[in-house]
Amino acid sequence: MAEVVSFRMDGSDRGEGPVLMERRDGALRLTLNSPPTNSLSIAVMEQLHAGLRLAEEDASIRLVVIASTGKVFSAGHDLKELTAHRSDDDGGRAFYERSMRLCADLMLAITRLPKPVIAEVDGLATAAGCQLVASCDLAICTDTATFCTPGVNIGLFCSTPMVALSRATHRKQAMEMLLTGETIDASTAKEFGLVNRIVPKQYLDQVIAKYASVIAAKSPLTLTIGKEAFYHQIELPVSEAYDYAIRVMVENMMAKDAKEGIGAFLEKRHPVWTGE
């Protein structure tokens, strides 16, 4: 039986709030809970940041799943919140800078978290919501999920979502989404490289649980080393990437978990990880 503990970011155990947290067999689920849009308001982004910090600090948490309630995974930035600040003395510039910076820092925090992050997408992921999916290490969606970067339709090019999108998909496919603003279906998103797998809605929890179980069974040190190395090397020229990867591989070989894992493989037994 899976251990499930639900709580709010403020520490209470009430099942409400813009972001719900739930521990389940080594995974921390962060669920966007502001339907119908699940927008990335300042409050929501701050709570997601807090959840990622908890995941980083708590050794019992092996990975993070970002999910949502309702029919929309996330509609991105809260346009009503942004528009309300047009009446500020500076026309809203300081608030817009704060909101965009907080969002960018959130996406970077996902990438830099020394634990895997999986997007569980059931519904529409649009603009910064699509950026959130693109920023996660893995993305599993239902066969009815849809994705778009529609800023161009309202005179606001999705420049910050573009950063994650262009790194998750091929350039021309990213530009297609950014220039047209049109919605793509799950199959197209998989073809573009935005998601890993498409599953029927009724099997989404089961598939996510399987991924979580498989990942949680690995050496936490190895996952940390590997995730950091992946995002570092991908920005390097290929020869520099190999030089860097060689250094990482040698250091990884010196770790106790590598010694244990190789020994267990040769001895045909299950490894016992210490995270060292």
TrEMBL record:
InterPro entries: ClpP/crotonase-like_dom_sf, Enoyl-CoA_hydra/iso, Enoyl-CoA_hydra_C, Mitochondrial_ECH-domain. SUPFAM superfamilies: ClpP/crotonase. It comes from the Bacteria. Pfam families: ECH_1. Keywords: Fatty acid metabolism, Lipid metabolism, Lyase, Transit peptide. One of its GO terms (molecular function) is enoyl-CoA hydratase activity. May play a role in fatty acid biosynthesis and insulin sensitivity. Belongs to the enoyl-CoA hydratase/isomerase family. This is Enoyl-CoA hydratase domain-containing protein 3, mitochondrial. It comes from Peteryoungia desertarenae. The lineage of its organism: Bacteria, Pseudomonadati, Pseudomonadota, Alphaproteobacteria, Hyphomicrobiales.
